[in-house]
Amino acid sequence: MSESLSLSVIVPVWCEASSIQSFLQSLRQVRAAGHELIVVDGGSDDGTAELAAPWSDQVLIGDKGRALQMNTGADAARGNVLLFLHADTLLPDAALEHLQHFFTSQEQWGRFDVRLSGQRAIFRVVAWFMNRRSRLTGIATGDQAMFVRTSVFRALQGFAPIPLMEDVELSKRLCSLSRPYCIGDPVTTDSRRWEQGGAWHTIFLMWRLRWRYWRGESPESLAAAYRADVRHADS
């Protein structure tokens, strides 16, 4: 008898008290189907972990840093497929059906297409370019809800412990095993980051950072540049 999909959804969080419960409630269908939901808190001081507990199978406390938190969740996961989901990203209704098709495929990993929640036309353009670039290059980002067979993730020793570009770095290693399984039914990511920073400014910022990464600049210096830009935008 063939093995069936057993999914572990891993959500790294930090100071998400205002929205964590409504987000986790959106995943009730996943838990009702017998799959696992793991929240990994990076040391929030606003009660995020306590609020998440009733809506999760496990709430873990790990070192702050998305890569570190996701690795912590993966270490504790019991499923045969890991899905890494940001706390501002919603899965499509048919996500489990799509992931079952992935599980019976020959691919080792994959991601969803993405759309942004905002209604402005620029957000549709941004999403189109993100999805098109990903299909051409095979590289996925965290906003696209990456998923991977657990055995493969562990064999590759998970995400590199870097402060930025951990999703791109892992994608490059996964591409050596297979092309990503691309699900066209999109996840919906909150567009607040683009709205707060300015859509065009955020587009250019992300492309600049990615270009500098491809040229060999360290993730640490890129993370510093990103934080400085965000602080400037908030001031």
From TrEMBL:
Pfam families: Glycos_transf_2. It is found in: Cell membrane. Gene3D superfamilies: Spore Coat Polysaccharide Biosynthesis Protein SpsA, Chain A. GO terms for molecular function: glycosyltransferase activity. The keyword Ribonucleoprotein does not apply. InterPro entries: Glyco_trans_2-like, Nucleotide-diphossugar_trans, Trfase_2_rSAM/seldom_assoc. Keywords: Cell membrane, Glycosyltransferase, Membrane, Transferase. Its main location: membrane. One of its GO terms (cellular component) is plasma membrane. Residues 8-150 form the Glycosyltransferase 2-like domain. The keyword Nuclease does not apply. This is Glycosyltransferase.
